[in-house]
Amino acid sequence: MKLWVDADACPKVIKDILYRAAERTRTELILVANRPLAVPRSAFIRSRTVASGFDVADNAIIGWAEAGDLVVTADIPLAAALVDKGVTALNPRGELYTAENARQQLSLRDFMAELRGAGVDTGGPPAFDQRDRQAFANQLDRLLAQRSG
Predict the structure, then answer these.
(1) At what angle do helices 12-25 and 130-148 cross, to 10 degrees?
(2) Number of H helices and number of E strands within the chain?
(3) From residue 104, how far is each of 50, 77, 108, 142 by CA, in Å?
(4) Is 2 helix (H, G, I), strand (E, B) or coil?
(5) Which of 7, 23, 65, 120 is the most exposed place for a label (fewest CB within 10 A)?
(6) Which residues contact 114 (CB under 8 A, 6 or more apart)?
(7) d(Cα 86, Cα 84) in Å, to the nearest integer?
(8) Which residues 6+ apart lie within 8 Å of 106 measured at CB?
(9) Order of strands, edge to edge, in the sheet holding 45-49?
(10) Residues 107, 122: Cα–Cα separation, whole Å
(11) Along the 149 residues of the chain, how does pLDDT read in single tens digits?
(12) Neighbours of 87 (CB within 10 A)
């Protein structure tokens, strides 16, 4: 199993959790971004830089990730495509994407975009907080334990 990260928008605190988990479990961690990233020196951690452009990083992750891998992303269309491919997708708030909830979230995202396009102020997601960080760390630990056990 490999850990992939849609790293352009991933919070630093989540990357730090992933760095520690990769070292602890000796799991390959690859951060994908459209700009060079500084990552810790490690035999298990590396980054891949892709060209800038709409969905370039997402398409690269879809192409590289394989069934049984885990991808960390907040991008719902990317998560839906990964789940369809048999890849586990986890968002930085600790929510595991499934075939059902990824499609539901995609529909809701599209609906909210339509509302915003019509001039409705829909607000944004709540601020990322300690509960989100803990939920992510717990879910990541569960997934890594399942894969090693």
Answers:
(1) 20
(2) 5, 6
(3) 29, 11, 6, 24
(4) strand
(5) 120
(6) none
(7) 6
(8) 76, 77, 80
(9) 45-49, 28-33, 2-6, 70-72, 88-90, 96-97
(10) 15
(11) 999 999 988 999 999 999 999 999 999 999 999 999 999 999 999 999 999 998 899 999 999 999 999 999 999 889 999 999 999 999 999 999 988 777 777 766 666 677 778 887 777 677 889 999 999 999 999 999 987 66
(12) 23
- Two tokens at 91? 């968002």
Q: Which residues is 45 bridged to in the sheet?
A: 29
Strand-pairing partners, residue 6, are: 32
* Residue matched to tokens 């717990």: 138
**What's the residue count for the chain?**
149
Tokens of 106: 């995609």
Q: Which residues contact 109 (CB under 8 A, 6 or more apart)?
A: 76
